[in-house]
Amino acid sequence: MPLTMTTKRRLVTAALLAPASAWLFVFLVLPFIAMLVFSVGERGPAGGYQAAFTFAQYANLPARSAAYWNTLMLAPAGAFLCLLVAYPTAYYLAVKASPRHRLLLVSLVVVPFWTSLLVRTYAWMYILGSRGIPNLLDMIGIADVRLLNTPGAVLLGIVYGYLPLMIMPIYVSLEKLDRRLLEASADLGAKPLSTFFSVTLPLSLPGVMTGVALVTILLLGEYLIPQLLGGGKVFFIGNALVDLFLQSRNWPFGSAIAVTLVAIVVVVLTVAMRIAWRISGTRQVDLV
C-alpha cells in the first residue's frame, strides 16, 4: 500500500528530529531520571549513593537555606542590574547609532565572550582585592574598605559576566522596531519620553523578558562567580551542589537540591513565557 503524502511528511519530520531527540533523551532526560532516583536514596557508608526509598533528603533542604536565599535574592537582583545597564545600551545600538558604526559596536559587546569567564573573574579579584581599588582608596585616606568576598562583589561580577546576554535579545527586539511608529507618535504630538513608554518599551518587552529569563536561569546555577568573588562567604545553589557531590559525597542530598533547582528553573521559565505572551499577545518561542 503506497504511503500518502501526509505520512511521508511525518516520516521525514520524524527522521530529521530523531538525532536531536536522541541527544536530548540521553544527555537531558536520562540524567534527570538518575537525579530523581538518587534523591530518594541514602548516602552510603563511604559516601555516594545507597539504594533506598525515602524523602528525608527533601526534608533536609532547609539545612542549605543560606544557599537558596543567596541564589533567589542575588540572581534576580543581578538580572535586574543587567537590565538597567543593558536597555540603554541596546537602545543606543538599535535606534541611535549610525548604521555604519552599528556592526562594530555590536561586535564590541560580544568581544568579552572571546575571553574565558574564569580569566575575567580573576581580573576582578585583583581589581577588588587589597592591591586594587581598596589600595587606591587607602592612599587618599579611605581605609579599611572591603570589596572582595561580599555580595556587592558577586553582583558586580554577575553584571560584567552576563551583560552581553541581556543586551543581545533587547537589541534584536529594538532593531526590529518599525521606525514609522515612532514617527507617527511624534507627528501626533507625543513627546519623546511619552513615545518611549507608549510605543518603544511595550514593543521591546518580549526581548526584555527573553533577556531576563535567560540571565536569571543561568544565574540560578552559577558557581564560578560566587566562588571566586564571594570567597566562600556568598554561597549559591551551584556551590552547594559542588560541595555535596565532590566534597561531602552526599549524592542523594545533592540530587534533591538539583531536582529543586530544576523545578525553580521551570517555574521561572513558565512565568517569563506567560508574561511575554500576555504582553505581546503571541507565544514567545524564543524563550524556550
UniProtKB/TrEMBL annotation:
Where is the protein situated, by its record's location annotation?
A: Cell membrane
List each copy of the ABC transmembrane type-1 domain by range.
68-272
What are the GO cellular component annotations?
plasma membrane
Give the UniProt keywords, A-Z: Cell membrane, Membrane, Transmembrane, Transmembrane helix, Transport
Residues spanning the membrane? 72-94, 103-127, 153-174, 195-220, 251-273
Q: Name one GO biological process term.
A: transmembrane transport
Which InterPro entries does the entry mention? Answer: MetI-like, MetI-like_sf
Q: Does the keyword Transport apply?
A: yes
Top-level taxon of origin:
Bacteria
Membrane association type: Multi-pass membrane protein
User: What family is reported?
Assistant: Belongs to the binding-protein-dependent transport system permease family. CysTW subfamily.
| PANTHER family xref list | INNER MEMBRANE ABC TRANSPORTER PERMEASE PROTEIN YDCU-RELATED, INNER MEMBRANE ABC TRANSPORTER PERMEASE PROTEIN YDCU-RELATED-RELATED
Can you name this protein?
Answer: Spermidine/putrescine transport system permease protein
Q: Which organism is it from?
A: Shinella granuli
